[in-house]
Amino acid sequence: MATLSATIPSPPWPNPNPNPELDPRSDLPETPESISLAPDASPKSAFPSPRPTLLHLSFNQDHGCFAAGTDLGFRIYNCDPFREIFRRDFSQDPAGGGIAVVEMLFRCNILALVGGGPRPNFPANKIMIWDDHQSRCIGELAFRSDVRSVRLRRDRIVVVLEQKIFVYNFADLKLLHQIETISNPKGLCEVSQGAGSMALVCPGLLKGQVRVEHYASKRTKFVMAHDSRIACFALSSDGRFLATASSKGTLVRVFNAVDGSLLQEVRRGADRADIYSLAFSSNAQWLAVSSDKGTVHVFGLKVNSGAPVIDVTKTPSDANIAVQPHNPSLSFIKGVLPKYFSSEWSVAQFHLPEGSQYVVAFGHQKNTVVILGMDGSFYRCQFDPVAGGEMVQLEYRSFLEQEAS
């Protein structure tokens, strides 16, 4: 997802997993920061307000919903069919209404909120645990520096600061692990969402390095993914595959997240680009990429042997004409032409208005992608897995203009 956790005898929020599979690490302190329960607060009612300014967009864990944080509060939307589920407007709060991070927990009533914008509703160094059934905050985690991002599982809360990551047990907010990272202003971090034990990916301590934590085996793997700074990465939902992009933004590499081996390399383009998001399909057959070039690319992956994958090696001059790399008459090309000409290019593309940031995920319907723009745009598109080429736009919405349902 592109965003951009004292034993409490009777926690006031539902326990997402009463039997967590991880044992707390005995050598860790209980918590490096403060944890406190919020006092009772009156529910804040929703009422009409002017068009807000977007501060945050993110999908939930199964990409069926997305959350928008604004300078007035936050809103939750369903992707297919598209509809606004609910909104919370904090604009009348004397402190302000800005929400810079909204992290959903599937479709649960519990969310993690971090204040932001010119008039933040909450301090930027606190995570507020929001129960939407009660329309109030039921707890908080406070830190010595600003929170960059949050990741939730049913059994874990992962808090990302600029140079440190904390992993908490969701049931009792006990600290399980803390990780030092290189400077991470984007709050890059991903966690697996499968039923098994968690895998966590974050920047390492070196430029271009990615760290993978496997909690079931208590093993740490460092992957030197790029020579340049890591700009973006994604983890498949089962934690098996890792996709990374550097600040150059020309190549995307796919690794085995268990042993760190390079499985595949695909090319977004020849010129530099800022990669905004990477996303695996649910079966790891496809990988979607969005960047500042205004194009969303879908690549076919060969990493999952159980899924049939078409040949996606393309010529740069014509992305719709496949080069058959196993043809003996063309085998000499790889040894003569630069690596650029033997690169694997995207199967399908969708062109967007430039000038906005976009995050992408795969839809629940087959061969569809959902694209969210920081300009308030929502696109649902479909690609042809065989013919490839330009995707077909199925739906467009300007979601900030939508009335609450």
From TrEMBL:
<protein>
    <submittedName>
        <fullName>Uncharacterized protein</fullName>
    </submittedName>
</protein>
